[in-house]
Design goal:
The protein is of the alpha+beta class and 107 residues long. It has helices at residues 49-64, 73-81; strands at 4-6, 9-13, 19-27, 33-40, 68-70. It has one domain: 3-Layer(aba) Sandwich (Aminopeptidase). The chain contains 2 helices and 5 strands. Strands 1-2-3-4-5 form a 5-stranded mixed sheet, with helices on one face. A hairpin with a 5-residue loop joins strand 2 (9-13) and strand 3. The protein is globular, with a radius of gyration of 13 Å.
Length: 107
């Protein structure tokens, strides 16, 4: 997949410009980010792409020197599972965040 990077968003589209995968995050007042949304196109689900996308997000965060927590339930679980392998990107607030995943991109 070819990944595109925008402020607060990492995503991939296909040759028809259809969204295939997306992660969005909000910059918090403390300088960290909250990963608030992840999406995998239904045609690609069940292939491990969400985990691969989170690996891309982790590399991005590390390169930018950012730490993250997540209100997206998938991203929150992924970060918690990778505490030992990605300690430099995981916020101390990871266990404090109230989960409020954006369904259909709404809060």
């Amino acid at each position: 997949m070819n990944w595109e990077y925008e402020d607060g968003r990492i995503y991939s589209v296909d040759e028809n410009n259809e969204l295939m995968a997306e992660t969005t995050f909000i910059f918090k007042e403390n300088g960290e980010v909250d990963i608030d949304y992840t999406y995998i196109n239904p045609a690609l689900r069940g292939q491990g792409l969400a985990g691969k996308m989170m690996e891309v997000v982790a590399v991005y965060l590390k390169e930018k020197g950012l730490k993250a927590s997540a209100t997206c339930s998938y991203a929150n679980a992924w970060l918690k599972q990778h505490r030992e392998s990605c300690p430099d990107i995981i916020s101390k607030e990871i266990d404090d965040d109230y989960l409020m995943c954006r369904i259909d991109r709404k809060r």
